[in-house]
Input
Amino acid sequence: MKKIALLLLVCMATLAAPKAHAGLLISNKMGVKGGLTFYTANIKNAIPLLPKSNISYNTGFHVGIADRLTLLKLLYVQPELLYNRTSYDLKLDNGTTRVHTDLVNFPVAVGLHLLGFRVYAGPVVNILSNSGFSGSAFKKVTTTYPAIGYQGGVGFSILWVDVDFKINGGGAPTQTFINNDNSTSRVDLAKYNLMLSVGVMF
Output
């Protein structure tokens, strides 16, 4: 939680900074965004003796805030702070268990405005906020994400509404399960996911 609070402070400082240098910027837009998160690869190293066909992803979602600083109507920098929830279902002998992961993403995109589109890429800071599951199939689950990932995408704007499609990657997150008999199992999640977002910028 301390890291999340620090990111919030950094984001607030970033949002405030353009006002002090408005004379150097062509435009500065702030807004909110949200959308769907899709996994694009199957779980690897699944819980021992559990067929991969017993594991299915669910469509996740994300919401957050964004700030876009544009120079010369061509180059822009856009930091964001996003909350992202994803989940998948495990079909076990005693029923189906849903495992969810809550993650704070802090992406910083550097992009270009080209022919009515925005093309961008940049780093993503990943901080896990929570992992959990339904039922009593396990005692505990923890998830370890790479500290730094990457993003790349394309988007377009209609008036003040943004539509974006991007990929996030940077290494496979690992989930560790503590079973009811105190043994442990591991799941390596997808190395990357796709995000479809709609935002409103002011």
